[in-house]
Design a protein that fits this description.
There is one protein chain. This protein is an alpha/beta fold. The chain folds into three domains: 187 residues, 3-Layer(aba) Sandwich (Rossmann fold); 40 residues; 55 residues, Orthogonal Bundle (Arc Repressor Mutant, subunit A). The protein is built from 13 helices and twelve strands. A six-stranded mixed β-sheet has the order 4-1-7-8-12-11, with helices on both faces. β7, α2 and β8 form a beta-alpha-beta unit. α1 runs parallel beside α5 and α5 packs antiparallel against α6. Keywords: DNA-binding, Transcription, Transcription regulation.
Length: 329
């Protein structure tokens, strides 16, 4: 169940379920991402971490984890998120029952990393597409054949159930949910606070085929920053390659290695993200937004936005109304 923008009095409730032994990194992600999201200066989410018996829980690392809430936190949660766990076949039945009850009343269900195994044990992934940490994808597919496992996806949004790969892919999933709930501007603000990229599509591969850096230690980070400052200009492969000081062929190969996508697809994603933020945060006409983000024509922006998010610019503005006034010159 995807929520729309809510007033502070009706803050979106997130229950993060710790299934021991927990993965400590995964457990921290929802609290950081959702806890950083604000609407008009007020928290957009209330996050509660819960488990069967509040108190110390076993973890997969040397860190001691203390969970403050019991499973009653799930009862009124709008989103229920299970983080990584080594309980891939024997999660506590009380947790599974609470997850089933939450799904039955329409809560949005999600998992990070091997938390997908817990959702699968509860039967919540039956007939759905899902992903998990690529090392465990084969085991998930073998143990739960009724689940359509997409082993390379960073995250999968399949209606009321969302799953992600491990570690930083959990950040991508949480940012995706923030953007779904409250729009690109709020999600981008959270990403800036967390110093991470705001946009990584769920279909991007988990594992890059080659090392991120070139053999000489160089990267295309400077060229990507240069392009981001010039999205309104007619950027070309030749122009990007010239800035990087490489051939077009080398640019394509290294861009795929570093960013997990092609230069032109990366440019399209960045332009769409900037257009979405302008649609939400300004009253600029669509033709000016198209020009400022490099789409040139309103029709081009409309076509790409419809393909990517299923909304026209007008519908997008209606769905994510402008929260406050800002300079629009």
């Amino acid at each position: 169940m995807h929520s729309s923008v809510r007033p502070p009095a009706d803050v979106h409730r997130v229950a993060v379920v710790a299934v021991p032994p927990v993965t400590t990194f995964d457990l921290a992600i929802p609290d950081i991402v959702f806890g950083s999201a604000e609407l008009d200066g007020h928290p957009a989410y209330r996050v509660r971490i819960c488990t069967v018996e509040p108190g110390p829980v076993a973890s997969t690392s040397s860190l001691q984890v203390v969970v403050p809430h019991g499973l009653d936190a799930i009862a009124d949660a709008d989103t229920v998120l299970v983080t990584g766990s080594a309980s891939r076949a024997d999660a506590d039945e009380r947790i599974l029952a609470a997850l089933r009850a939450a799904a039955a009343r329409g809560a949005r269900m999600a998992s990070i990393c091997t938390g997908a195994f817990v959702l699968a044990q509860a039967g919540l992934l039956d007939g759905h597409s899902a992903t998990t940490y690529w090392v465990q994808a084969g085991a998930l597919e073998h143990r739960f054949p009724q689940v359509r496992v997409l082993p390379q996806a960073l995250f999968v949004d399949d209606g009321p159930v969302l799953t992600s790969a491990g570690l930083t892919a959990g950040i991508d999933l949480c940012l995706h949910m923030v953007r779904t709930d409250h729009g690109a501007a709020v999600a981008n603000a959270v990403a800036r606070l967390a110093a991470v990229s705001a946009v990584r599509d769920g279909g991007q591969g988990q594992v890059l085929p080659t090392p991120v850096a070139a053999p000489d230690g160089s990267s295309l980070a400077a060229t990507r920053a240069w392009a981001l400052a010039r999205l309104a200009e007619p950027l070309t492969l030749a122009g990007l390659a010239a800035h990087a000081g490489v051939s077009v062929r080398t640019l394509n190969r290294r861009f795929q290695a570093e960013a997990g996508t092609t230069p032109l697809q990366w440019l399209l994603t960045q332009r769409l993200e900037q257009a979405r933020e302008l649609l939400e945060s300004t009253t600029l006409p669509v033709d000016r937004i198209a020009a400022r983000t490099g789409f040139v024509t309103p029709d081009s922006l409309r076509r790409h936005l419809l393909q990517r998010v299923g909304m026209t610019p007008r519908a997008y503005r209606t769905h994510f109304p402008r929260p406050r006034t800002r300079a629009e010159s």
